[in-house]
Amino acid sequence: MPPLAAVLTFAAIAALAAWEWGGLMRQDQPARVMYAFVLMLFCWQLTVAAQPLVPVLLGVSVAFWILVVPLWFRFKWTLAGNDFFGYLLGALVILPTWAAMVALHAVDTWLMLAAMALVWVADISAYFAGRAFGKHKLAPSISPGKTWEGVAGAVVGVLIYGGIVLSFSPLKDKLPLSLPLLVLMLVLLTAVSVMGDLFESLLKRQAGIKDSSNLLPGHGGVLDRIDALTSTLPLAALILHWVRS
């Protein structure tokens, strides 16, 4: 079993994210608290009784982000009108993120942090590239500030970051990938990180709110901080499982 402290810490983060997800669904406080509690129970059951299902959960998550989310952007589906679907979707977004954090941390704490830093590098690179060169809007109806030039900057930033990390750190031994495959994985991770950011932006816009909550004063809520991680970490953990299997 993974270290208990990590499991519980990440489960607490998942529970807070679940509570905020209930807010995106416009649920009342009792329902939001109950949903957070149920998500924590799922985390615990996966840990003690269903660890072999984790790769399957990660695979379903990756399929959702790559196949379903683009359609979500195209048709502007919403969480309104079907509470069961909303709760199920929240579990699909949050639970694999928790599982990915646990899986990456169990292999190497620095590996988990490196995967998270990839998202931050992509975000920072996109911001500065968009400010300097941005002309073509990526998704103006969802996030007017994002541009295709920003996405290109994110890809360049992540490729440089990945090259540095895997050339000058011990993590290179944990990811024995060929150069073409490494580049493909880094580009794919960057793409899904952008999708995770846009997805939460769309849900917040549909819910008519600016931040997922005010749990982190000055920084919004937990979902605001992990939006791109919800799409990127499951893919990173699945790649790690594939490489190590």
From TrEMBL:
Spans through the membrane: 6-24, 33-50, 56-73, 85-104, 110-130, 151-171, 177-199
Membrane topology: Multi-pass membrane protein
GO terms, molecular function: phosphatidate cytidylyltransferase activity
Subcellular localization, as worded in the UniProt entry: Cell membrane
The protein's annotated pathway: Phospholipid metabolism; CDP-diacylglycerol biosynthesis; CDP-diacylglycerol from sn-glycerol 3-phosphate: step 3/3; Lipid metabolism
Any one of the GO BP annotations: CDP-diacylglycerol biosynthetic process
GO cellular component: plasma membrane
Keyword Nucleotide-binding: no
Pfam family, one: CTP_transf_1
Keywords: Cell membrane, Lipid biosynthesis, Lipid metabolism, Membrane, Nucleotidyltransferase, Phospholipid biosynthesis, Phospholipid metabolism, Transferase, Transmembrane, Transmembrane helix
Coiled coil: none
Swiss-Prot/TrEMBL catalytic activity: a 1,2-diacyl-sn-glycero-3-phosphate + CTP + H(+) = a CDP-1,2-diacyl-sn-glycerol + diphosphate
EC number: 2.7.7.41
PROSITE patterns for the chain: CDS
Similarity section: Belongs to the CDS family.
Protein name: Phosphatidate cytidylyltransferase
Organism: Sulfuritalea hydrogenivorans sk43H
